[in-house]
Design a protein that fits this description.
Number of domains: 2
Low-confidence stretches: none
Number of helices: 6
Structural class: mainly beta
C-alpha cells in the first residue's frame, strides 16, 4: 500500500494511493486517487471509501518525524568520491524535523552556502516505538519506505566539524511522495536508486551496495535511542552527488516506491 499525507480545503489527512503513476510534471497525476484513511496509519485503520483525485490535493511530507537520523558514508564509492574513509561502524547524524518538506516543495538555497549538493537516499519509516531491536526483529518495527534527498551545504560541511548547519537547515530533507508499506526487507535491500537534475542523471546505484544494511543501521541506532512511530532513518547515498543551483529541478526515484521532485529556490 502507498500511504500519502495531504491537505485539501485546509484539512490534513492520510490516504491510500490508488492507481498507477507518480506525482510531478514528468508523468502527472492522471488516474491517481486517494482513498481517505480513517484515523492515522500507525495504528489499525480503515479506508473510508471516500476518494479524492490526487490532482486536487497538495501532497505534504508523508510523515512528520519526531527525528530524522541519517547515516553517512554508507556507500563505498560515495565515500571515495569525497575523499573520505569508510567508517568501520555506522556513522549517524541528525536532521531536525524543521528540515522536512514534501514533494513539490521548494528547497531554499541557504544564504550561508555557495555549494549545495543533492544526495538521493532510501528512507526507512518507523512504525512503532522501539528500543534495542534485535536484528531478527527489525522488519517488525518498519512501517514502510519512501524517497529522501539529504540536501547538503557541502562547503559548510567541509569547514565545520559537525554537520548541524550543513545538513540541518530548513528544507534540507525532502521526503516523499508517499510511504510504501508492502515492501519486505529483502526487497527494500536491493532497489535501484537514482537522482536527476533537470532531467540529467547524476546518481545511479542500488540499495544492495550499502556497506551497512538496513538491519545493521536499525540495530546500531536503537542501541542508543528510542525510535517513535513516524521517525525516519536515512540510509546513505550512492556515488554521483553534485551541485544544485537556484532554479534546478531535482528528482529522486527509487524502484518500487516512486519519484520525489523538488525545485531549488532562492531563500526568501
Amino acid at each position: 500500500m502507498r500511504i500519502a499525507r495531504f491537505s485539501i480545503d485546509g484539512n490534513v489527512a492520510f490516504g491510500a494511493v490508488e492507481g498507477d503513476g507518480s506525482p510531478g510534471p514528468a508523468d502527472g497525476t492522471d488516474g491517481l486517487v486517494l482513498n481517505i484513511i480513517k484515523g492515522i496509519p500507525f495504528t489499525d485503520f480503515e479506508l473510508s471509501g471516500t476518494r479524492v483525485p490526487l490532482s486536487k490535493v497538495r501532497l505534504l511530507p508523508p510523515v512528520l518525524p519526531n527525528k530524522v537520523v541519517a547515516f553517512g558514508r554508507n556507500y563505498a564509492e560515495h565515500a571515495a568520491e569525497l575523499g573520505n574513509e569508510v567508517p568501520p561502524e555506522p556513522f549517524a547524524f541528525f536532521k531536525p524535523s524543521t528540515s522536512v518538506i514534501g514533494t513539490g516543495d521548494g528547497i531554499a538555497y541557504p544564504s550561508f552556502s555557495e555549494d549545495l549538493h543533492h544526495e538521493a537516499e532510501l528512507a526507512v519509516v518507523i512504525g512503532r516505538m522501539c528500543r534495542e531491536v534485535p536484528r531478527e526483529r527489525v522488519a517488525d518495527v518498519i512501517f514502510g519506505y519512501t524517497c529522501a534527498n539529504d540536501v547538503t551545504a557541502r562547503d559548510v560541511q567541509k569547514r565545520e566539524k559537525q554537520w548541524a548547519r550543513a545538513k540541518g537547515f530548513d528544507t534540507s530533507c525532502p521526503l516523499g511522495p508517499w510511504v510504501v508499506t508492502d515492501l519486505d526487507l529483502a526487497t527494500a535491500s536491493d532497489l535501484t536508486i537514482q537522482c536527476t537534475v533537470n532531467g540529467e542523471q547524476r546518481q545511479l546505484g542500488r540499495t544492495s551496495e550499502m556497506i551497512h544494511p538496513i538491519e545493521d543501521l536499525i540495530v546500531n541506532l536503537t542501541e542508543a535511542m528510542t525510535l517513535l512511530p513516524g521517525d525516519v532513518v536515512l540510509t546513505g547515498t550512492p556515488a554521483g552527488v553534485g551541485p544544485l543551483n537556484t532554479g534546478d529541478e531535482v528528482a529522486v526515484t527509487i524502484e518500487g516506491i516512486g519519484t520525489l521532485t523538488n525545485r531549488v529556490i532562492k531563500r526568501g
